[in-house]
Write a structure and sequence with these properties.
Elements lengths: L2 E8 L6 H6 L2 E4 L2 E4 L2 E4 L6 H11 L4 E3 L3 H12 L2 E8 L7 H9 L5 E5 L5 H15 L4 H11 L3 E6 L4 H5 L5 H10 L1 E8 L2 E9 L2 H13 L5 E11 L3 H15 L4 E4 L2 H7 L3 E8 L1
Parallel strand pairs: 1-2, 1-6, 6-7, 11-12
Antiparallel strand pairs: 3-4, 3-5, 8-9, 8-13, 9-10, 11-13
Length: 281
């Protein structure tokens, strides 16, 4: 049966693999650069492999947007099997992916592009909402209109272990990174009007900071829409992550979605980063 519309997004959406398969979502990979070589995010390199390469070469990765041609290829393929295509892009204020997707969409009829204004699992929450709306028989255009409203309710935050990756990626200054390292500060970052900003500054060991980060969010758990929360990580210890998940699920009274950040997000946040994203009421 021909689908009403297909859904695509960018690889930094960090989709839960099971949900991506269930909803048949296509992720357009961004490019990872390490030591003069290029890799496709999630296609020919994983975050663990990326960090191993960087450690061996004593460097940090950089990223670049998917080119217009990649979007045209994906949109053409998806449009061949559906009435329309809906693409939910990485936020336009932090990447040129959105602009590239728009250019490609102009060449292929029936393609709608939504600027998520977000990153990582903040995007994936919009993807899951789009799939639900499609199941409710919304068109791609109607879904895009609804997502423009829903995206204002997405809350995205994460706490990082080191500012070095953000510094080398141009997201913060050397002075900020040096000061944070000297003072033992582990900042939490949040999306605000489509851009990143420091929300809080924590001190302590990573495990303690991540627990405090989650506790601070859960202190306002009445603002979290049931069933619309995601816990995401880059290399956080498995046992610690399981414990944090149990804490969140107990507090919210139900299951949450979990995910592993891909190479694009990991390249900027570095290892041992914890993210929590949810749909607010």
């Amino acid at each position: 049966m021909r689908k009403r519309f297909e859904i695509s997004t960018d690889s930094p959406a960090d989709l839960n693999p099971e949900l991506a398969a269930r909803f048949s979502v296509t992720a357009v990979p961004l490019t990872i650069h390490i030591g003069g070589k290029e890799y496709k995010d999630g296609v020919d390199i994983t975050p663990a492999e990326m960090f191993r390469l960087c450690d061996a070469q004593k460097t940090v990765p950089t990223t670049s947007a998917a080119p217009v041609g990649d979007y045209m290829d994906v949109f053409s393929r998806l449009a061949a099997g559906a009435d329309e295509v809906l693409h939910i892009s990485l936020g336009s204020k932090i990447s040129s992916t959105h602009q590239n997707a728009l250019i490609a969409a102009q060449e292929i009829p029936g393609v709608h592009v939504v600027d998520s204004g977000n990153l990582s699992c903040g995007i994936s929450l919009l993807v899951y909402e789009a799939a639900a709306l499609r199941d409710a028989d919304y068109t791609a255009a109607q879904t895009a209109e609804q997502l423009e409203r829903i995206k204002r309710r997405i809350v995205t935050g994460f706490v990082i272990d080191t500012l070095e990756y953000l510094r080398r990626g141009g997201r913060c200054s050397m002075l900020e990174a040096l000061g944070a390292n000297l003072l033992g500060i582990k900042p939490s970052i949040e999306m605000s009007e489509g851009v990143l900003r420091v929300a809080k500054k924590y001190r302590g060991k990573s495990r303690e900071v991540q627990r405090k980060f989650i506790d601070d969010i859960l202190a306002q758990k009445e603002n979290i829409e049931p069933g619309r929360a995601v816990l995401c990580r880059t290399g956080v210890d498995e046992e610690d992550f399981r414990s944090l998940r149990q804490t969140v699920e107990t507090a919210l009274g139900g299951d949450i979605i979990t995910s592993q950040a891909g190479c694009t997000i990991s390249a900027h946040c570095g290892p041992n980063c914890l993210g929590f994203m949810y749909l607010s009421k």
